[in-house]
Every structure is written in C-alpha cells, then in structure tokens.
Amino acid sequence: MARIGVFVCHCGTNIAGVVDVKRVAEYALTLPGVKYAIDYKYMCSDPGQNAIIEAVKEHKLDRIVVTACSPRMHEGTFRKAAERSGINQYMSEMANVREHDSWVHSDDKEAATLKAMKLMEMSVAKVRRSEALSKMYATVEKRALVIGGGIAGIQAALDIAEAGHKVVIVEKDPSIGGRMAQLDKTFPTLDCSACILTPKMVAASQHPNIELRVYSEVVEVNGYVGNFDIKIKKKASSVDNKKCISCGVCTLKCPSKRAQSEFDEKIAPRKAIYTPFPQAVPNKPVIDREACTFFLTGKCRICEKVCPTQAIDFNQQDEVVTEKFGAVVLATGFDIFDSNVYGEYGYGEYKDVVTSLQFERLINSSGPTEGHVVRLSDKKEPKNLVWIQCVGSRDESKGRPYCSRVCCMYTAKQAMLMKEHYPEVNCYVFYIDIRAAGKNYEEFVQKAQNEYGVIYLRGRVSKIYEKKDKLIVRGADTLSGSQVEIVADMVVLANGLEPRKDAKSLAQLFHVSYDQYGFFTELHPKLGPVETAIAGVFVAGACQACKDIPDTVAQAGAAASKVLGLFSKEKMEVEPLIAKVDPLVCSGCETCYNVCPYSAIEMEDREVSRGNLKHVAKVLDSVCKGCGACVGACYSKAVDLKGFSERQVYDQIETVTQ
Amino acid sequence: MKQYLEEKNFKQGFRKDVERLSKQKISNCYQCGKCSAGCPMAFKMDYPPTMTMRLIQLGLHDEVMGSNTAWYCVSCETCTTRCPREIDIAKVMDTLKIMAQAGKYEVSDTEIPIFDWIFLKSLQYTGKVYELGLIMTYNIISLNPFKDVFPLGLQMFLKGKIALFPHFINDPVAMWEHLEMFSKIHKKQKEKIRETNG
Ligand SMILES: Cc1cc2nc3c(=O)[nH]c(=O)nc-3n(C[C@H](O)[C@H](O)[C@H](O)COP(=O)(O)OP(=O)(O)OC[C@H]3O[C@@H](n4cnc5c(N)ncnc54)[C@H](O)[C@@H]3O)c2cc1C
Ligand code: SF4
Ligand code: SF4
C-alpha cells in the first residue's frame, strides 16, 4: 500500500488568498493512501523543503504530492527534495493550483477551493501508480552550429571557438558580416563599422575551430539537445572555391546588367558573378543564376574564359549534408520595415525618398557613391534633408505597435554624419519621442541638436509630395502646436526593424516558438533571455528582439556561455519519461513505427521465449521524446509511457469525472 | 491657451462622454501629430486636432467646447486615414458638434453653427438652397448686414450665380418625400440629443 504525503503551499497570498488551503489539506487526509498532509506558507523555501524531508522520514512516506505552482517553476526543486529525503525523484508529483486556479479564479473562492481539491486529488491518483525510474544519460556532441553570420553569429562563434570547441557558421548570403557590414559609422561613438567588424570577420574565417558555410541554409532538423542531426544545403555557387584565387577578373568582365546589389540596397547595379562587397569573407564570388546571361540564354561563358584557374563550374549542383551538433545558436538578425506600406510617403514613386539602409550605403565611403551623398534622381547634392522616424514602428495601423529601439539613435547618427560631411546642409528630424536609454545615448542625441544643429520637430509627417524637383514634406510640430512644411531635397525614412522573412519557417524546423511578428521567443523574458523552450537551442541578436550592436554582442556572448556550459559536461542527464514496449504483447503491426514523429521506433526480431523469434517494436531510448503518439496508436496496448502510464492518466480522468 | 492647468478642471466625465458617444478610444492618442499635419483646416482652428485630442484626454471641456475646432472640420477624414492609433478623429469632431447641439456643455461663440442652421432650414423649406435668403439671414443674425455684399455679392448676382427668388421642388411627390426625409432627420436628431444627454 502506498504511503502518500500531501504538501499544500500558500505561496504567500498568491494561493492562500483565494484557496482555502486548510480545507485542501484536510480533504487530502480522507483520500486512500494519504498518510500525511500539511499546509505551509512557502513550500519551496528551505524550511518548506525540510518539512517535506522530515515528514517522509517520520511517517515513512514513499511518495509525495506538492500542491503549489506550475511544475515549470518548481518541479526540479521538489524532485530534489524527494531525492534528499531518500525516495526516488519520480515518486513526486505537483498539482498546479496557482496558474491553473487561484490566479484565474480569484473572483470565486469557493469554486477555486473545490478545484484545488480536485487538482490535488488527481495528482494523488497519479502518484499512487508512480514507479521509481532511474536517470538516463546521453552523450553530448561538442560541436556548435551558429545560424546567421552577422555580428551576433560571428561573436557567438568566436567565443565558443576560443573555448576550444568546433563551430560551424551557416550563412545564407555569399559573405558573413550581416547588416553591420552595410553601415557607415556607428553610434554612440561614431567609429567606423567596417573597421571594427572586418577584424572579427577575418578572425572567424581563420580560426582553426570555425568553419564557414556561406551561401547555405538549414533545411531539416532532427534529434535533441546534445545530439541534433541537421541537414545543411549549400546552394550551387558555380565557382570551385578550391581553385578560385579571388582575383576578381570574372566580375570585372561579366557583361550582365540585370541585377541590383542587395548589399547596396538596390541603389547600384551588380554583376551576375559577384562578391557582395570588396571585404567579403570568404572572398569568393558566386553566380546569381537568375541574372546570368549563360543560364538565361545559353550563351556567354565569358567568366569561364577569363578565369585564370578554371574555377567556374556551370554544372555545380546544390549539396546537402547531414551533420551532428550538440547545440545551436539562432542569429538570423533583421530586415527593415517595407517602406511601400506608407503610401503617403511616396517611397518607390519619388526617387529621393530613401530608406535608412540606403542612406547608410550612400554616406559610406566604400558605398556606390564613395560616400558622396547625392539625390538618386539627378545625382545632385541635397541641401535640405528630412528624416522621418517611426516608419513601421509604434504604428498599430500598420501592424507594428512596438518600438524598434535603434531608429532614434541611427537617425541622430545619420544627421550628424551628414552635417560633418556637408556643414552647410539643413537636417530636420520628425520624431514622436526620443528613446535614447543606453550608455552615452542621450548625450549623443543632445549633441546632434546642440552641437551639430540638427533641427528636431516633434510630430509625424502626414504626406510627402513632389513639386518640380523638390519634395514637400507636410508635418507637424506638436510642441508649438503648428503645422510644418519643409521643402526638401531628400527624405530618409527611419525604418523600423522586423525579423527576416523566413524566420518563422526556421523556427518551425527547431520547434522554437516565435511572437506574432516572427521574433524568436526566449525562455523567460527576464530570467532566460538567450535560452529557448527547446533545450540546446539559443538565440542571439536582432532575431530575438530589436537590438543595437552593443546589446547584440552582449547577448551573443551570453548564448556562447550557455553553449559552453552544456559542452562542459561529458554526459547529459535526460528525462526517463519515454515510451517502453512490452515485447510479449506487441503484435509487430508497425503502427507505432509509422506514427512516431521522431523515428524513435525500430522494428527488430527478438527472442521472446527460447528459440522463438518475434517481430516486435523497440524504442530507441536516446531518440524518444515521450510524446506518447505511439501509446495512442497501438492496437494491442503493448506500448506505454514511463511516468505517464495509461493507467495513471485514466485514474486522473476518473477522479475528475467522479 | 491657459498658462497653467488646475487639477479641478480635469473633468474625466467629459472624456468618457466623448469616448462613449464617438465610440473612439481617445486615451489611445499618443500625440504624434499626424492628424494635425495633414488637416487642411488646421490653420483656422483654435486648437489643431492633436491638441484637441489632448484636451479631451485631460477632460478640459471648456477649452474643447469653447473652441472653433470642430466647426471648422470639413469631414475630409484625412486625419482618420492617417492616425497610427486607429482613432476616427473626424468622428470625434462630429461628436463634439452633436454634443454642442445637445446643450449639455457650454459651446463656442463661433458663427458656423448659425450658418449651418440657416443652411439646413433653407434646404428644408425650399428643397434647394436659396442663396440670397441664406446670405441675408446670416448677415442679419450675425449682426454684420453688409458682409461680402460689395463687391463679391454684387459680382455673383450680375453673373447670375445668386437668384432673387428661391427655387422650389416642383414635383409635389418629390417635395413630399423631401419633407418626409427631414422629419426623419429631426427624429434622429432628437434621439441623438437624448443619447448625448442620457
Ligand atoms: C539603418 C541602420 C543603422 C544602424 N546603425 C547602428 C549603429 O550605428 N550602431 C548600432 O549599435 N547599431 C546600429 N544598427 C543596428 C544593427 O544593425 C544591429 O544591431 C545588428 O546588425 C544586429 O546584428 P545581428 O547579427 O543580430 O543581425 P544581422 O546583422 O541582420 O545579421 C544576421 C545574419 O544572418 C543571416 N541570415 C538570416 N537568415 C538566415 C538563415 N535562415 N540562414 C542563414 N543565415 C541567415 C543574414 O544574412 C545575416 O548575415 C543600425 C540598424 C539600421 C537598420
Ligand atoms: S476630418 Fe476634420 S479634423 Fe480631420 S483632417 Fe479633415 S478637417 Fe481636419
Ligand atoms: S494622429 Fe492619432 S495618435 Fe496621432 S495625434 Fe492625431 S489622434 Fe493622436
């Protein structure tokens, strides 16, 4: 006969303020098998845990139920307490009467108390049939995968590699570097972006522990923490990187004029065979088959002819490899909000309305205009420039209610740079509120206004229209209560940030959750900022939320340290709550084999009695996730889940329906 | 505008009244100014739309109802189209006018409501606007009898833009339908006033 102890937690007033905890404890004592029940202010505190340990010893309890908060919060705590009291940790259960009861039914104390009693009774019913389980261990593949080669990915990879572990960076573009490579100078110090980024890019490419896989994407994910099997597709670049000596003659001679440079935000053309920018890492060109004359018309092959090392290979195919990794860092960064959504600003219609990233390329000395800021329409230097903040931020009507965090700062930066290059120009900034909460940020924005003379107008712009070769910007200055009209030569939209277009599908591959916009969801908004709900998968950079470079680098370091924590163990404890087949009952029908989403079932011929071989299912312990799909599917009731047996679940249902 | 605000003037009941009647959540306004930026009439208004929203948020009904803002609104709905917080500002302007008509709050001394009233009356009795009657009545009531008579009025008269006598709807059935419509409008108006004061 089971000897059960029930421990009812008050959680201060969180539970006891609504639920009559005394009544729950008293009711517990009436249930078969329950030998002991108490209520206590904080079960999770040291005295609370000690009370459990003492009660187990004194009353010879062999299993416990803690009626408290969510198991997500404290299951580990009470399992450890069970272990310390001398019973198997899987002989403990929790009943969640906080999130599932007191917090949601605070308006009806009586009903909440009855529900708490039921929830407790269900856990008692379950624990009655619990069996001692032993821990399982899995090996850890000490090799990390970083997806995205922006500053977040590069930093995380360098930190992991420095600690002595192998890292693979998968980057979808032909070069690593991400958005930061596109920027001119960076706030709040105005140091040159390339000058601080390129050394890191080179360090990553030369590090013996880092392998770069550019022009590649993840296409399939299997396995679990410590043992992911990940399929990576390398797109055909049509260039044999082993032969290529990066001389660049192919790009020079390529006659194709079809494509616009993605790196230059489509304000400049690029060839069909190209490296995105001169400092690209690796510095190997790729052929864009949609722009290549040979691929489109069957004629040309000029690059092949001019290449001194015969590195061009038009027959190259996409390659897919499957590799093992112990941990993954997602660092896929951001896109900017689509300016076309704001019809009133005329982006696309008026050539001199540009996005913030286009402006970065224009003012960048290694950009297509070599740092000369000119109007895209007539190549003249602008005299009056207007920045419009919050384009795709803090705008419910455009589906973007959040603040993108970096636009106030980069607007101030861009206006300052403009003033530095051309002191005689006028810079106007339309803003709603200035958010400059970082170290030295407020001072930076003040400097833009006080020292550089950038004029800030507090209001959103309603409309932009063209009049001759000027752009008329109609806005407001709510501080003076007036309408404002500015005759501008160029307008820069301070676009907000949003996740990459394919972020959601990548998250789905890993079963990582994401918010309505596609930002990856961290494990806990405060206490788990780089973990995800999927063990072994971490996040870093702007793919998790809008972030500037300092925060991105900090988060990347944090993600790396979590990966290193995982890699510091030889073996990793895993939950033994997995499926188990009874070979005597199994009929070998293979139903479970077909339904298992993790391919954790193997069919084998097994000796069930002397000389008798039987075709039966077998669970691969290290692959099974304990989802229970096989249990539901089995016709013969030959498979069951450890720690979640069918009998336990039925007993719980019976309790609640009584 | 007042130079300092006193807490006793913050009439939250007024804000709630406007929110209830316009079915718009005015507390959502974060004062971005986009409505004022695009308003074609803001140059005439005592307070541009953004500021009107702010005054309503604070519950300063004397300022709001005493201003000419709503009366100058031409219901072009530019503000409504552009508002990032999805507030139907033009509807709020309408609501303010209805509230003024209902007499629950003291209203501005602008002449626009008088003009609107005469305009509608002229329409009701003749079926078509009788310009000369409208101008004369308005000028007399607003105590400005010679307003715009010379040279503008004369020029328009000579060009045949202003007739001496009113035009009526000749078809009796159409006239009957027309009067029917007005009585419906009056009924609706009474309902609105009841709703406003209730
Ligand atoms: C106009 C502008 C100016 C800015 N100026 C500054 C500044 O002055 N100072 C500052 O601190 N911050 C600035 N920022 C912010 C800064 O750009 C970001 O903080 C930083 O780039 C974030 O780095 P990241 O690595 O997270 O993302 P990214 O730079 O976006 O890098 C992500 C990388 O992942 C790759 N990738 C995406 N999806 C996949 C996939 N599915 N598979 C493989 N690879 C993938 C991308 O190709 C890219 O290389 C600015 C931003 C903008 C828009
Ligand atoms: S609807 Fe009225 S308040 Fe709104 S923009 Fe037009 S005139 Fe201005
Ligand atoms: S546009 Fe909307 S949010 Fe902006 S000031 Fe006007 S009412 Fe307020």
Question: What attributes characterize this protein structure?
Answer:
heterodimer; A: about 650 residues; alpha/beta; Rossmann fold; FAD/NAD(P)-binding domain; 5 domains; 5-stranded parallel β-sheet; 34 strands; B: mainly alpha; Fumarate Reductase Iron-sulfur Protein, Chain B, domain 2; 11 helices; binds flavin-adenine dinucleotide; binds iron/sulfur cluster
Estimate the strand proportion of chain A.
25-35%
Estimate the helix proportion of chain B, in percent. 55-70%
**Any idea what the radius of gyration of chain B is?**
20 Å
Query: In CATH terms, what is the fold-level topology of the largest domain in chain A?
Result: FAD/NAD(P)-binding domain
Tally of helical runs of chain B: 11
Could you explain how this protein is built, in words?
The complex is a heterodimer of chains A (658) and B (198). Chain A is built from 18 helices and 34 strands. Chain A is an alpha/beta fold. Chain A folds into five domains: 4-128, Rossmann fold, CATH 3.40.50; 143-235 and 318-333 and 500-567, FAD/NAD(P)-binding domain; 249-306, no CATH class; 336-498, FAD/NAD(P)-binding domain (3-Layer(bba) Sandwich), CATH 3.50.50; 579-642, Alpha-Beta Plaits (2-Layer Sandwich). In chain A, helix 2 (46-58) packs across helix 3 (71-84), helix 6 runs parallel beside helix 15 and helix 11 packs parallel to helix 12. Chain B has 198 residues and is mainly α. Chain B is globular, with a radius of gyration of 20 Å. Chain B has eleven helices and no strands. Chain B has helices at residues 12-22, 34-38, 49-58, 61-66, 69-72, 78-82, 89-102, 112-126, 131-141, 149-158, 172-197. In chain B, 59% of the residues lie in helices and 0% in strands. Classes of the chains: A alpha/beta (658), B mainly alpha (198). The structure holds flavin-adenine dinucleotide and iron/sulfur cluster (2 copies). Residues 38-41, 49, 73-79, 89-90, 93 of chain B line the site of one iron/sulfur cluster.
